[in-house]
Amino acid sequence: MRVRVSYRWRESPEDDWNSGSILFKYKFRLRRDPYTLTQPKPKRKPSARKLAEDRENELRREWEHLEQLAHWSVRDYFRAGHDGADIPDEFEVKTDDRDHLNNFSADFWERSRGS
Question: What order of strands is seen across the sheet that includes strand 18-25?
Answer without folding.
Answer: 2-9, 18-25, 90-92
